[in-house]
Amino acid sequence: MGIRVLLAEDMHMVRGALVALLNLEDDIEVVAEVSDGGQIVPQALACTPDVAVIDIDLPGTDGLTAAAHLQKQLPECKAMILTSLGRPGTFRRAVSAGVRAFVLKDAPPQQLAQAIRRVQRGERVVDPELAMAAWDSGDNPLTDRETEVLRLAADGAEAAEIARQLFLSAGTVRNYLTSSVVKLGARNRLDAVRIAREAGWV
Length: 202
Fold this sequence. Notes:
Blueprint: E1 3-8, H1 12-23, E2 28-34, H2 40-47, E3 51-55, H3 63-73, E4 78-83, H4 88-96, E5 101-104, H5 109-120, E6 125-126, H6 128-136, H7 144-154, H8 159-166, H9 170-183, H10 189-199
Parallel strand pairs: 1-2, 1-3, 3-4, 4-5, 5-6
Helix pairs in contact: 2-3, 4-6, 7-9, 7-10, 8-9
C-alpha cells in the first residue's frame, strides 16, 4: 500500500512538476492536489491522505494555519511544510502547529520523497541549517493577539475590519498595533509588518 499524499501548492507549474515527480515513486501516490489553503481540510477529509505537503504561502488560508486546522480535524494525516524561505520564526510557528517536517523548496526532489517516507514512519524532518538558525534566533516579542492583529494588518485589513473579524473595538486594535510597533522598534505599522515578516512571526 503506497503513501497517500495531498499536495497544496498555488503555483500550477510547480504543483504539476511535484505531482509528476512524486507519482514516479513506487510507494507514493498523490491522491489530491489543491491551490488554496481553504481547500486543504475539506479535501483531506474527503480522501484521507497519510501525509499533506503544504506550501507555506497559499492564498485563502495560509499554509501554517491550514496545517494547524488539519491536525485538529484529521490528526492521523501528518503535515509537512514546503517553503522557499527558511525563516526561524516561521519554523517555530510550524512546530507549534503540529507540522512534522519543514522542507525547503530548493531541496532536490528525491529529498522531498525521502522526507514524506520519514514523516509517514513517524519521524520529524527539518532542514539542518534552519534548525540551527531557529536555535540561535530570539523569541517573538509579540503576544498571540498582537501577532494575530499584525498578521491581518499585513494582509491589508484596516483597524475597523480587523476589529470586526476579532470581535474587538477599533481602539483596542489600534492599541495592539501601537504596542507591536513599539516592541519591534519599528517606525510605523508597515515597518512592523516588514520586521515581523522577515523574522517569520506573521
